[in-house]
Amino acid sequence: MPVVLQALVTVLHPLNLFLISIGVTAGIVVGALPGLTATMAIALLVPFTFGMSVVHALVLLGGIYCGAIYGGSYAAILINTPGTPAAIATTFDGFALARKGHAYRAIVVATIASSVGGLVGVFFLVFLSPPLARASLRFGPPEFFWLTVFGLTIIATISPKSTVKGLIGGAIGLLIGTIGISPIEGTVRYAFRTVALQNGITLIPALIGLFCLPEILDMIGTRYHRETAIPYRSQRHMLRRVWRLMIRKPWLLLRSSLIGTVIGIVPGAGANIAGLVSYNEAVRASRTPEKFGEGSIDGITASEASNNAGVAGSLVPLLTLGIPGAPPAAVLLGALLLKGMRPGAELFSVHAPVTYTFMFSLVIANIVLLPLGIMLGKAASKVVTGLPITLLAPLVFFLSVIGAFSIQNNIADVYVMLALGLVGYVGRRVGFQPGPIVLGLILGMMCEQGLVQSILIGRASGTPLAIFFTRPISIVLIALTLLSAAWPMLARIRQRRLPEAAAAHTHPIVEEKSDA
Amino acid sequence: MRRDRVVALVLAAVGVFAWTEAQRYGALSRLFPQVVALALVVLSLVLLAESFTVRARRAAKAYRSQRADGEKPDVRGVILSLLVIVAWTLLLEPLGFWITSVLAFAVLVFVLRAPDQRAAAVWKTVFAGALLVTAFVLLFRLMLRVPLPQGVLW
Amino acid sequence: MSKNGRNGQITTGLCAALAVLFALISAAEAVAAGTGEPQAYPSRAVNYVIPFDAGGQSDITAQYQREGLERALGVDVVIRHQPGAGGALAWSALARGSADGYTFSGNNIPHIIIQPLVRENAGYDTDDLRPVYMFQTTPIGLAVAANSRFNTLDELIAHARANPGQITVSGSGTHSGHHLAILQLQYLSDTEFTYIPATGAAPSVTNFLGGHTQAILANSDDLVQHRNAMKILAIGTTERFHALPDVPTFIERGYDFTAGIDRGVTVARDTPEEIVRTLEAAFDAVSRDRTFVAEMQALGFEIHQKGADEFSAYIERKKEEIITALTVLGEL
């Protein structure tokens, strides 16, 4: 395959390697700041790539995409706020680990997982794009509806203390998601004649508010001072140490990466929920599910491997069909069109050298992510854990404000951030976690759209309800949902049957404490 | 727990409100919010019922004794900081993004300072804050081209 | 005493430092905002606001125009995205913002006309905005899958007439150009389709390509891009569309309506006349550039060169047309 070889040579050109590294670094920084998303980073850079050759432009943008999704884990681990929506599940264990003084270790786990996940995703992108893309089209409105219903069962996993409160949080999130113009009839709902609310509640400001503000206020209220409470711990050979721990569970890494790739491929689902679904599965497959949420490296692995695999996944329908799998991919589509490259068959014939170079650049991006991430991650964890609370709390709030504003250059988003922040704080005081609320918000729009579109299509075919229950992928999703909903019971039965196994299985962190 | 009862009643009320408000929307715009509102009401009632169980009472007792033993959260600090944060947000547009952020940052540093902290350290933090705010504002303004509100000042 | 002295020093130092910071910010503002003296427009960077997501038709056009605009205006052109509420978010911000010509926004017809008509409070009125230039249209076409049993518009209409509501048609949004088109087609052909709105062009195309709807109303650039996967039955132009010459128009087939989405730019209503003219001239220069025209046409866009006056008249005409149509169709 001379084209592939040629692409390989091109991507290894020093200038391309340099551009990829720049892209990944810039992406990490952007992703790490809450409020700056991968979509925004790519959109900002498209004008700069206008004068570049198409190869240089694409390798740069691809690097940013990978870097940004990974960078979201920093904020998740260090300040309990997902830097990008994809990193929500990383907060559960990442922050818990950081509070124990293991911020750097958490970042190393995230880095390795992201790198591996990304590489698995690219593997599927390179070798299996056309069949996967065709399969992704089979996801229609009923499948989206069931996918979101399945997604909602994750709530049980991420709110172990009180399932009822978790479900209530999810319902609140779904309800918040209905604010604004309705998807089918164009009715303005719950806006109370305010223009700002007609647009609905934008995800990122809501995310920042719900996660970040309660964290700041808790920081203030309990006055926990990380520097004095838990000193920053560095270890020699951290990379090798963590890798040895992670490789013991190759199935976890692989499964998470696969989940990320598949969900990334489904257009519209995107990496946002990939991390959560994968986390859910990791908890369910684990012999020690109770360790999750307390700083389990498995939780971080599941989330990060999956969301970075989703990056390549979202490019599958983009490159083969011209359908973006996620918002950042939509911006990439614009960039491709600007360069006169029409996604589809042409991309793999006429433009094959460029296309394969782009794909290989993602391989490189996921490889350079490792050293760059370790370096930047070490610096970031040292700085953030070292800051006194008097500086950290105001700084995090300032970043929240500037991030919420920049999403749409809209001051109303800052007010939304504050309002939901207060809701989140009060909620936390009475036992509600932000995770389920945000999950509801993410899934709400997709769920309602799938539901009403299916009803319309069902009505047209004369059998309104059959459409929900007769399609093969739907049936699989329904089965998964039922299984997931019944899981807590099944798990209890299994737990009873395997008390010795659970007791014998000590947690990696505990194991490692001796050499910390 | 008594807290849970209040929360459950408030949320049930929210659900009822969402249901009635949706009543005037078209059939397809109403369906989803009303189903969710119904779920919210039902779940709130479950939460209410749960709060009367023996287990909940025991948990409440444990919680109270734990709170009595543990450190008291800094309520005054939280309320003051909240006021600063709200003022910060509301003044951004009328006053200007940069000046509001620098000033509010400084005020918050003073609110948060520990009683034994030396003034020099506090001022140093204020200065660092001003520097960081300025750096970010410049970055967003000039490089990322984000039109941060300028207000009457800056 | 010594402690106080030290504090004094720190305070003084801090004040000095803040003064320096302030100077820095003002300098940056001055660079960004010009020196404050009234100068010939434009004396600083202008903002080109796209009321839709990055990667969409408006965005792609703007990215193409940027370089030419910068050449014509002599300042930086910054493309910003302010999506939301079908464009209404950006337009209400523009209507409320300062009318100095430093911020202008994409203007999409029919969205900009329909939103204030069908919503209690869209935050702006079409008359709050001053049209500057209209540069492209994507005509809307009706297509079925490549393996569909329908080969012509007549076959599809005949089936829809015999089986009301049985044919599903994918489109982008409610109260959008696609929605208007299906309402007009139903009215003129006395048929009933089931319109399945998606939240944008991309998800609508996905629904159609996946076989979840039987037909689609799509923008011409999407039709051009996916033409191998579909049979395009008719298109909403007055004459045959350059990029798809084999496709008949709705008018040819006896349904007297056109459908399309027109894109241009607009400023706040009270913007001074000479500024409007300067912008108009800049967009005119870009839109007459041969490479721009050729590249846009290849992507499936129809290029226009409508100046401010012509564009205003066009919007007025469209507005009346839409009001009539919506009233007849019972949407108003």
Describe this structure in words.
The complex is a heterotrimer of chains A (516), B (154) and C (332). Chain A is mainly α and 516 residues long. Chain A has helices at 2-11, 14-32, 38-45, 54-79, 88-99, 103-137, 141-152, 154-158, 163-177, 195-198, 203-222, 226-229, 238-247, 250-265, 270-285, 297-321, 327-338, 345-348, 352-386, 389-408, 411-429, 434-461, 466-469, 472-497, 499-504, 508-512; strands at 180-181, 188-189. A two-stranded antiparallel ribbon of chain A has the order 1-2. Chain B has two domains: 2-69; 75-143. Chain B is flat, with a radius of gyration of 24 Å. In chain C, strands 1, 2, 3, 4, 5, 6, 7, 8, 9 and 10 form a ten-stranded mixed β-sheet that branches. Chain C folds into two domains: 46-137 and 262-328, D-Maltodextrin-Binding Protein, domain 2 (3-Layer(aba) Sandwich), CATH 3.40.190.150; 138-235, Periplasmic binding protein-like II (D-Maltodextrin-Binding Protein, domain 2), CATH 3.40.190. In chain C, helix 2 (57-73) crosses helix 9. Helices cover 45% and strands 21% of the residues of chain C. Chain C contains eleven helices and ten strands. Classes of the chains: A mainly alpha (516), B mainly alpha (154), C alpha/beta (332). Chains in contact: A-B, A-C, B-C. The interface between A and B is large, with 52 and 64 residues.
Shape of chain A: globular
Task: Please mark out the parts of chain A with pLDDT under 50 across 5 or more consecutive residues, or reply none.
Answer: 225-229, 500-516
Element string of chain A (H = helix, E = strand): HHHHHHHHHEEHHHHHHHHHHHHHHHHH
Helix segment tally of chain B = 6
Cα-to-Cα separation, first versus last residue of chain A: 50 Å
**Which geometry of chain B do the CA atoms define?**
flat
Output the structural class of chain A.
mainly alpha
* Strand line-up across the major sheet of chain A: 1-2
Number of separate helices of chain A: 26
Strand content of chain A: under 5%
Helix share bin of chain B: over 70%
Question: Which radius of gyration of chain B do the C-alpha atoms yield?
Answer: 24 Å
Could you describe the largest sheet of chain B, including whether it forms a barrel?
A: none
